[in-house]
Specification:
- The chain is mainly beta and 332 residues long.
- The protein has one domain: 5 Propeller (Tachylectin-2, Chain A).
- It is 2% helix and 46% strand.
- The protein is built from 1 helix and 22 strands.
- Strands 14, 15, 16, 17, 18 and 22 form a 6-stranded antiparallel beta sheet that branches.
- A hairpin with a 4-residue loop joins strand 19 (287-294) and strand 20 (299-306).
- The chain is globular, with a radius of gyration of 18 Å.
- The two termini are 24 Å apart.
- It binds beta-D-mannopyranose.
- Beta-D-mannopyranose (BMA) is lined by residues 29, 97, 244, 283, 286, 288, 305, 308.
Length: 332
């Protein structure tokens, strides 16, 4: 069960494909920040294009990023045009799973892109949320990058999740940290959390929401996947058996690759009707958080993709999320 410290909004899902003013089959995983006094959301759109094949899962699929604004963090108005689409097909294919962060007043968009040589992690920067300058595309394979809200020791700092494909069967993906003077050149790679050390997952892990500063350390949510081969398959593909959940971790303020503590169990689970099998979604039993916005009253809003189909929001007290991180790392 989702920890009682997180309150899922009664009106969830707050965004779905039916809200799009442009063609799109699904609207889900998102990043959210406060920008020019409003909430600004970038979200993933999957558009299935009928190519005559009888099975919808074999249709052509285009992935792009939409943009929506809100005054209250709940009711979002989607801009008429997509916000960010693949630009150079040979290097950047479908773009998806955006996360956003404001650093030094500039808006940074982290995204994943599928290319012919693998999945790359992209970074673009904007001063108005509309015009983006592309700064970086990682070597394959990497994704789930999130930026810290400040430079650390003078450097832009991110969590990311390189794939370790060759080791896939024995060593699922770990969360790493890297730093950059300018957003273009990244180095200083250090491992943060090894998937094999996460107490509540047996498959992939990855960064979820961008970290926020607390007096106890950087607080971030990360996702973890539990794969139960005996679970009956579900979802549009008819093969989905994974459960995506999210936990909390607290990182050292000065050496952010060091985990101080983490939650011994996930804090957010896919247990609402719009998240589990009842959703009728593409991939049920998935919560995929990408946005966490601090509120002035000590609370935060957490945004996540639900069942790879819609966007949901919840609130929590930041102190409660910190307090949920009771387990020392590395774990016993
Ligand atoms: C991950 C990413 C996410 C997706 C999740 C569950 O690997 O592809 O975009 O939400 O799987 O399908």
């Amino acid at each position: 069960m989702t920890a009682p410290i997180i309150h899922k909004h009664d009106g969830n899902p707050i965004l779905k494909a039916a809200d799009l003013p442009f063609p799109g089959t699904l609207a889900y995983n998102c990043g959210v920040c406060r920008f020019t006094g409003r909430y600004l959301m970038f979200f993933r759109v999957d558009h299935y294009i009928d190519n005559g094949l009888p099975d919808r899962m074999k249709w052509d699929r285009k992935l792009l990023i939409g943009r929506a604004w809100s005054d209250d963090g709940i009711r979002f108005q989607v801009d008429p045009q997509p916000a960010f689409v693949a630009e150079s097909p040979e290097e950047e294919g479908n773009v998806y799973d955006p996360r956003v962060q404001v650093v030094d007043g500039r808006l940074y968009l982290c995204y994943a892109t599928d290319t012919s040589v693998g999945i790359r992690s992209g970074l673009a920067v904007s001063d108005d949320g509309y015009q983006f300058e592309r700064l970086y595309l990682s070597a394959p394979d990497n994704r789930n990058a999130v930026l810290f809200p400040e430079r650390i020791n003078g450097l832009l700092t991110r969590l990311d999740r390189p794939f370790a494909r060759i080791y896939r069967s024995t060593r699922p993906y770990d969360i790493w940290l890297s730093q950059s003077p300018d957003g273009r050149f990244w180095g200083g790679h250090k491992v943060v959390l090894a998937a094999s050390k996460n107490p509540w997952s047996n498959d992939k892990i990855g960064p979820a929401t961008p970290p926020i500063r607390t007096k106890y350390g950087w607080l971030a949510l990360y996702h973890g996947v539990y794969l139960d081969p005996n679970r009956p398959p579900c979802g549009w593909e008819g093969t989905w058996r994974k459960v995506y959940m999210a936990g909390a971790m607290l990182l050292d303020l000065d050496q952010p690759h060091r985990i101080l503590r983490l939650s011994p169990a996930p804090v957010l689970l896919p247990d609402a009707p719009y998240e589990d099998e009842r959703s009728g979604g593409l991939r049920p039993n998935v919560v995929f958080p990408g946005g966490l916005v601090e509120e002035p009253d000590g609370q935060c809003r957490i945004y996540w993709g639900a069942a790879d189909t819609t966007v949901a929001v919840g609130t929590a007290r930041i102190d409660d999320l910190v307090a949920a991180c009771t387990q020392e790392y590395p774990c016993g």
